[in-house]
Write a structure and sequence with these properties.
Order of helices and strands: HHHHHHHHHHEHHEHHEHEHEEEHH
Number of strands: 7
CATH class of one domain: Mainly Alpha
Distance between the termini: 39 Å
Strand content: 5-15%
CATH superfamily of one domain: Bacterial muramidase
Radius of gyration: 22 Å
Shape: globular
Structural class: alpha+beta
CATH architecture of one domain: Orthogonal Bundle
Largest sheet: 5 strands, antiparallel
Strand order of the largest sheet: 4-6-7-3-5
Low-confidence stretches: 1-22
Helix content: 40-55%
């Protein structure tokens, strides 16, 4: 879904969008009219164009329902892991990496972010592009702005940014589809992330996160670099304990806060080497046989900047490692 295929020129958009909608839109709601007024005065957007957009925009209860039951908050690590660390997803990841090996190697070198992490993100987010979402982004962001009060301020900003992206890139706002939260493309960037971190890797004047793999890979790598990825640094190590860890240590969260050497002093040891000076945190995840304890470092925390969930970060890390290992096995003579 390249931007050039999404829509005609912006000047033609008001005529295109103003056709009679198949269902009643939300353009006459008072809060929507206030939003339109703000977009006109603040950014100089066409009132007619905005009214056309919202005349074709629907509030969807299914979006609200999905927001109220995110997998990261309702599933144990054991169940969450089973969704993403599967043979079919690992094999698909190997194939995807092989198809784009030269491009991934180039971007890995340029951005100092491992290819397996880029592949792992896309594998968790969209199964390597097989599922980029089915909701119209305009519907998702409008629903969460005007019908989901507890997150309305955040999504109002996302809706604002999305409309500005449509103006800049000459997109028809009714065309892009994504997640129930309005995330778009293979890497599932929300609008502010697209504006801040998306890269036009091939220099064609567009940041195509649907079909241009160079743009996709560079954008993911740029996001990680901007959030402090450390080349060659550890992500996570499974921990062995000589005694139960203190609740205070677990409650400190997953942002590194303690040199590993201090954890070692209280009977916490990694199954792979860690520098005693490495800042780390300790987390507990509910596995199939009880709690799994993990020592997590800066790069794990960077993954959580993409999705603020330790379950998500661990799934990306383990999938990336599984794909890297399987690919290495396939390449052996």
């Amino acid at each position: 879904m390249t931007p050039s295929r999404l829509a005609p020129l912006l000047l033609a958009l008001p005529l295109f969008i103003s056709a009679a909608p198949t269902q009643a839109g939300i353009e006459k709601r008072s809060e929507v009219r206030e939003f339109i007024d703000e977009m006109v005065s603040k950014h100089g957007l066409s009132r007619r164009w905005l009214e056309g957009v919202f005349a074709h925009t629907q509030i969807q209860q299914s979006i609200i329902d999905a927001m109220n039951r995110p997998a990261e908050k309702t599933l144990t690590w054991a169940r969450y892991r089973d969704i993403f660390i599967q043979p079919k997803r690992i094999e698909a990841g190997v194939q995807f990496w092989n198809e784009h090996a030269e491009l991934l190697a180039q971007i890995e070198k340029e951005y100092q972010v491992p290819a397996e992490i880029i592949v792992g993100i896309i594998g968790v987010e969209t199964f390597f592009g097989r599922n980029v979402g089915s909701y119209k982004v305009a519907d998702a962001l409008s629903t969460l702005t005007f019908a989901y009060p507890k997150r309305a301020p955040f999504f109002r900003g996302q809706l604002e940014e999305f409309l500005l992206i449509c103006r800049k890139d000459k997109l028809n706002p009714r065309e892009p589809v994504g997640s129930y939260a309005g995330a778009m493309g293979l890497p599932q960037f929300i609008p502010t992330s697209l504006t801040s971190f998306a890269i036009d890797h091939d220099g064609d004047g567009q940041r195509d996160l649907w079909n241009n793999h160079g743009d996709v890979f560079a954008s993911v790598a740029n996001y990680f670099r901007a959030h402090g990825w450390q080349w060659g640094g550890p992500v996570a190590r499974r921990a062995d304990l000589t005694q139960p860890p203190s609740q205070r240590l677990l409650d400190a969260g997953y942002k590194p806060h303690t040199p590993f050497g201090q954890l070692a002093a209280v009977g916490i040891s990694p199954r792979e080497y860690l520098d005693p000076k490495e800042p780390v945190a300790l987390i507990a995840l509910e596995g199939k046989e009880g709690d799994e304890h993990w020592i997590v470092a800066n790069n794990f925390y960077v993954i959580t900047r993409y999705n603020h969930s330790p379950l998500y970060a661990m799934a990306v890390y383990q999938l990336s490692e599984a794909i890297r290992s399987a690919r290495a096995q396939h390449q052996k003579p």
